[in-house]
Amino acid sequence: MFVSKKFSWSELKRRIESKEGVTLSTSVLDSVIKNLEKMSIIKEYQFLDPI
User: Fold this and answer.
1) Confidence at residue 2, expressed as pLDDT on a 0 to 100 scale
2) CB under 8 Å, gap of 24 or more: what pairs does 32-37 form?
3) Measured between alpha carbons, how far is 30 from 28 in angstroms, rounded to an integer?
4) For the segment 7-42, what is each residue's pLDDT rounded down to a tens digit?
5) Considering the domain boundaries, does residue 40 fall inside one?
């Protein structure tokens, strides 16, 4: 999924939950985002490299 604009935290969470058909806790989403940032896949919720 390529994201071309910034989303609020709640909008990002809502879109992921809708796409995946699951409910995410805020702590799980926070952990995933932090890990993606550490791997330089995303930065400040902007995808650097569309996968």
Assistant:
1) 52
2) none
3) 5
4) 677 888 888 899 999 999 989 988 988 898 899 887
5) yes
The number of folded domains in the chain is 1
* Inter-CA distances, 19 with 12, 24, 40, Å: 11, 12, 23
Which residue range forms the structural domain that includes residue 43? 9-47
6-42 b/e (C-beta count within 10 Å ≥ 16 → b): eeeeeeebeeeeeeeeeeeeeeeeeeebeeeeeeeeb
Q: For residue 15, give the amino acid letter.
A: R
0.85 exceeded by pTM: no
